[in-house]
Amino acid sequence: MRAIVLSAPGPVENLEIREVPVPAPGPGEVRIRVKAFGLNRSELHLRLGYAEGAKLPIVPGIEAVGVVDAAPGSDLEPGQQVAALMGGMGRTFDGGYADYTVVPRAQVVPFRSELPWPVLGAVPETLQTAYGSLTTGLDLRAGQTLLIRGGTSALGYATAALARDLGATVLATTRQPARLDELAANGVDHPILDDGTVAARVRELVPDGVDAALELVGTPTLPDTLASTRVHGTVCFAGMLSNQWTIPDFYPIGYLPTGVRLTAYSGNAGNLPASVLQSALDRLAAGSLVLGPVTFYPFERIRDAHRDIEENRVSGKVVVRTE
């Protein structure tokens, strides 16, 4: 089979398409014939050498969609549609950047859909993180205000869609003026141009500060995001688009505004209920839910896909087709 192998951290040229043996599933494992896989920022971090605990060489990819090829002793049947995500995929064992992947049953979520495979490939991990950030990370409620810092990322668009669906008012940021209209077209109530500090603009729109904020850029913008949030409001740290995720000499009392809560979210396949995935796919098919723009690449252009993500050339989700 074909597999994309990362042999060492570095430039996109370190991603090599190789012919390797088809992996054999062991007890409690599922072999999936991969039809498409979404790209995620964490895979860029892996390639750049920022993934703690990863073993190289490895087939990257923290998610994939496809059909069950073999599942010895499992409740899953060959040919069944499934998504696989997280749980060490592409970090401690080979992930989704391949024609076949073998994953533990616990990391597999079954579904049924007639949507094209590349469209399906955009959903699992983005939906999992957006859903978990809003529920576990922020406990967002209808009628509240939400700021998304990093709104034109795949996660930003998906979170905006789910938050609007919940009945929240959404503010979202972008550093590129040309993308303000794109945010508005994707359901954002208040697109905001981000020059590094947006708290003053946010408080012009919501004088007391937003009820909730999702930090997707990382530690450089976190203090300003905290300053945009009301007393007893919550900021959830769930992304690192800036590739910066640590705070030197962190002094909580000096760093955190009085009364503003800071949480984090990083979920797993078990945090994406099958019913939530199925409902989202059904609504995508019906046109009643849009999770944001998607850019598709063939398998052979994996380096172009990684390069475009790294250089912020694309808005929304990137998906690679295997066929």
UniProtKB/TrEMBL annotation:
Residues 10-320 form the Enoyl reductase (ER) domain. Gene3D superfamilies: Medium-chain alcohol dehydrogenases, catalytic domain (3.90.180.10). InterPro entries: ADH-like_N (IPR013154), ER (IPR020843), GroES-like_sf (IPR011032), NAD(P)-bd_dom_sf (IPR036291). Keywords: NADP, Oxidoreductase. PANTHER family: QUINONE OXIDOREDUCTASE PIG3, QUINONE OXIDOREDUCTASE PIG3-RELATED. This is Zinc-binding dehydrogenase. It comes from Paractinoplanes pyxinae.
